[in-house]
Write a structure and sequence with these properties.
It is a single chain. The protein contains 15 helices and 20 strands. It is α/β, with parallel strands linked by helices and about 525 residues long. Strands 1, 2, 3, 4, 5, 6, 17 and 18 form an eight-stranded mixed beta sheet that branches. The chain binds 3-acetylpyridine adenine dinucleotide (N01).
Length: about 525
């Protein structure tokens, strides 16, 4: 066992959250190190390399705002950036701010143990390193721990297997191959059209169909880039006023579906469909509150699917039931039209789950389908998975697994009672996955850094959420979620995609402006809801 390193802070993860935290730690004079399981920066964009991977927030918005030169110098090429372009942006940031010298790559943090005696955390890694640190900043990401269902016979399959969330770094060529893909979430919806073009034959196994809106991706017009860059600060600030921290230039309509006649509704939905992307849910102001209003939007999309897909039976199988936007809305390029290709087959496994994998393929409904390759597009153990994989032991030996046995509990999505000096970035209880992640990451990191500087100035040793504040925040989060339609379906927001995971709505649904305002008020009131301890 190596000697114990002594640090002010460790940061777990070198995605956008970890990189910015490191940059701010250095600026503030804290001695910090990042631990990253991958061999490079980028987080979710490092791991999710499947064909067609792109961000569904527009590129001029999905980037750091903290450095004026950075945002002026970087050139995005398309409306929605591809995974390779976002990854090269992450690498550019790492180089530009010389971040790598304080990042331990290929190193997974395995345990964090709070030591009451010296009020520090003991960190252990899979490289047998030991670190004693005052602060732990968990920049572990919301969608980085994959969900690999334990299909019977998984080990028997003799062909290639892939998971969209752990795609190989080298190019995968399916030409001449028969391929099966399990799952029809965002990752599948983005990759299916490209895999279908490449493979000899593609079979899609769908348990639940999803609503998807066309991206209408295009090259960015230099005049548009120029316009944004001429007043980037204002553009950023307008976006921070939006519910999700993005989309300020695409008006969010507030009027009710019921104030419009059929023609007006149709015209509005058409306008939004043609515009493309997540803004479709902002066609009217009541789509996320009223089931009846929502159903009108949902039916518009079902009609689009029926228009696009030639075979009426296939179209019906692709038509989702229920609430649009209840599961994360998907954004695609040619997804539904791909089912018109002769080399693509859709298998509905809603009532006939996959029974087993065999040496040659898989069995569902008593039929064996044979493949050269099977792709699991089965998603993530979202929001809590990456935190729970680390053995985190707080005050009095309480583990995070025990603390969150009935679902995650935090104060502001930033702090957990009984886990002093440990902060989560975009953790459960924060807007996180319902927002432009980079906007919320910057806000979280800025808030945490202000707090650490405050503690240094006031000679305070620990900070920790008070149990009542945490309780109040959890209750407020649940109340807000229950005012929307979001808890009404089996989504990963609720943990419903992972067998045995407690069912609780994890992200904060109050929107960015309210959330940011709350965090600012808490800080201005000397961090109300937090308890500090001073040096003994
Ligand atoms: O994962 P998912 P994802 N047997 O959980 C199915 C973000 N993201 O990786 O719905 C059979 O959405 C499962 O079926 P069901 C984005 O936030 C963003 O696609 O549970 N099927 C579902 O169809 C997104 O929401 C971008 O019935 C099984 C699929 O697998 C999030 O990541 C791009 C199964 C999983 O879908 C997750 O997306 C990509 C089983 N045992 C991802 N288990 C962009 O920025 C699961 N499934 C655009």
């Amino acid at each position: 066992m190596a000697d114990t390193q002594v640090l002010d802070a460790i940061i777990v993860g070198a995605g956008f959250a970890g990189m910015y935290t490191l940059h701010r730690m250095r600026e503030a004079g804290f001695n910090a190190r990042v631990f990253e399981a991958g061999d490079n920066v980028g987080g979710t964009w490092y791991w999710n390399r499947y064909p067609g991977a792109r961000c569904d927030v527009e590129s001029m918005e999905y980037s750091y705002s903290f450095d004026a030169d950075l945002q002026q110098n970087w050139e995005w090429s398309e409306r929605y950036a591809t995974q390779p372009e976002i990854l090269s942006y992450a690498n550019h940031v790492a180089d530009r701010f010389d971040l790598r010298r304080d990042i331990s790559f290929n190193t997974r943090v395995t345990a964090l143990k709070y030591q009451e005696a010296n009020k520090r955390w003991l960190v252990t890694t899979d490289k047998n390193e030991r670190v004693s640190t005052r602060f732990c900043i968990m920049a572990t990401g919301c969608l980085s721990s994959i969900n690999q269902p334990a299909f019977e016979g998984l080990e028997n399959f003799g062909g290639e297997t892939y998971h969209t969330g752990r795609w190989p770094h080298e190019e995968v060529n399916f030409s001449g191959k028969t391929v099966g893909i399990i799952g029809t979430g965002s990752s599948a919806i983005q990759s299916i059209p490209l895999i279908a073009e490449n493979a000899k034959h593609l079979t899609v196994f769908q348990r639940t169909p999803n609503f998807s809106i066309p991206a209408h991706n295009q090259d960015l017009d230099p005049a548009f880039i120029e316009e944004i860059k001429s007043d980037y600060e204002n553009f950023r600030s307008e976006n921070r006023q939006m519910f999700g921290g993005f989309g300020a230039r695409r008006a969010a309509y507030e009027d009710s579906v019921w104030d419009a006649d059929n023609d007006k509704r149709h015209a509005r939905f058409e306008e939004r469909w043609s515009l493309g992307g997540l803004g479709f849910l902002r066609s009217f102001g009541d789509l996320s509150q009223s089931i009846e209003a929502n159903d009108i939007a949902a039916e518009f999309v079902r009609e689009k699917i029926r228009e696009i897909v030639d075979d009426p039976a296939v179209a019906e199988t692709l038509c989702p039931e229920g609430v649009i936007g209840c599961k994360r809305l998907c954004v695609d390029t040619n997804y539904y039209a791909t089912f018109n290709r002769e080399n693509v087959q859709l298998i509905d496994i809603k009532n006939e789950p996959i029974e087993t994998l065999t040496e040659a393929g898989l069995v569902t409904g008593g039929v064996e389908y044979q493949f050269d390759a099977i792709i699991f597009a089965t998603g993530f153990d979202a929001m809590t998975g990456s935190l729970q994989r680390i053995n985190i032991e707080g005050r009095s030996g309480l583990t995070l697994k025990e603390k969150w046995a009935a679902g995650p509990r935090t104060y502001l999505g930033l702090s957990i009672s009984d886990f002093p000096n440990l902060f989560t970035i975009s953790g459960p209880g924060s807007p996180s996955v319902l927002s432009n992640m980079i906007v919320t990451i910057e806000q979280h990191v800025n808030w945490i850094m202000d707090c650490l500087v405050f503690m240094r100035d006031e000679a305070l040793t620990t900070i920790e959420a008070e149990p009542q504040a945490e309780e109040g925040w959890v209750n407020q989060g649940n109340e807000l979620a229950n005012m929307t339609l979001m808890p009404k379906c089996n989504s990963w927001y609720l943990g419903a995609n992972v067998p045995g995971k407690p069912r609780i709505f994890m992200p904060y649904v109050g929107g960015i402006p309210l959330y940011f305002e709350t965090c600012e008020r808490v800080a201005a009131n000397r961090y109300e809801g937090f308890a500090f301890s001073a040096k003994a």
